[in-house]
Amino acid sequence: MPFELPRLPYDRTALQPHLSAESLDLHHGRHYRAYLDAVNARIAGTDLEDLALDELVRHSQGSLFDAAAQAWNHGFYFQCLHPRGGGDPHGRLAELVTRHFGDMRRLRDEFDQAALGLFGSGWVWLVQHPGGALAIQTTRNAGTPLTGNSTPLLACDIWEHAYYTDYQNERARYLQAFWKLVNWDFVASQLRD
Ligand code: FE
User: Can you give 123-170 as a three-state secondary structure string?
Assistant: First the structure.
């Protein structure tokens, strides 16, 4: 079965004014779709056709990996955003943030520095290491924590296509908007037991 473009988990206008409908149309409707189309074109008629997308990411290389990882990363990223997102996490996630970063401000500073320091295109992640510790991770291009041992909790797309429509090349302004949209309930739901 070919992979289908998942619907956005909110209306295309719901993230305004932080991310415009035009930006989401381009990012979700064109870029994300193009990655899924590329995966489908490459696996059609092969024995990879029955793999789930995360398995495909873990078991592919080259251009198939690039398309599959970008497709998986985008599916995860759009779930990390919510029109009523932002603010601070609570409960167990908040306790883990305090334990491993000191407070939310320090997590955010470390995440922002990683995002601003990433040359070119890539992703910034909040991950949970196998021992339970939280950490910031960056991946270049289509890179994804799925190929390592840590569990992705939160993703920020640092490809310019994610923010150029609304913020041109001003990555720092996009990051400010991103923090107003983070779906902490989704992030918390990704924690390991
Ligand atoms: Fe993207």
Answer: EEEEEECCCCCEEEEEEECCCCHHHCCCEEEEEEECCHHHCHHHHCCC
